[in-house]
Amino acid sequence: MNIIAWIVLGLIAGAIAKAIYPGRQGGGILATMILGIIGALIGGTIVVLLETGRLQLTAASLSIPGIIIAIIGAIVAIFLWNLITSRSNTY
C-alpha cells in the first residue's frame, strides 16, 4: 500500500475510532492519523492471526472491510494508550 493510501486510511480510521471511543482523547490531526495507521497494523495483524494462526505484521487495506478492521484496531490502540498513560500519572 502506498503512503497516500496509508495516510487516508489513518485519517478515516483514527477519526471514526476517536468518535466512537468514550471520553476525551486529545491530539490533533497528526495524532489521529498515526492512531489510525497503528490501528490498521493492529487490526490487520489480528485478522491474519485469526485466519492463519500465524503472527505476521500486516496492515489492513484501503477498502470497506479494511477500514472496519483499522477502526477496531484504532479503538484497541486508544484503549492501550489510555491504559499506559493513566498508570504513568498515578506514580
Describe the structure.
The structure is a single chain. By secondary structure, the chain is mostly helical. It has one domain (3-90). 76% of the residues lie in helices and 0% in strands. It is built from three helices and no strands. It has helices at residues 3-20, 29-52, 64-90. Helix 1 crosses helix 2, helix 1 crosses helix 3 (64-90) and helix 2 crosses helix 3. The radius of gyration is 13 Å and the shape is globular. The protein starts with a helix and ends with a helix. The mean pLDDT is 79.
Order of helices and strands: HHH
Structural class label: mainly alpha
Our measurement of the CA-to-CA distance between the termini, rounded to an integer number of angstroms, reads 41 Å
Count of helical regions: 3
For the secondary structure, the number of strands is 0
What is the molecular shape?
Answer: globular
Portion in helices? over 70%
> What does the average pLDDT come to?
79
Number of structural domains? 1
Low-confidence stretches: none
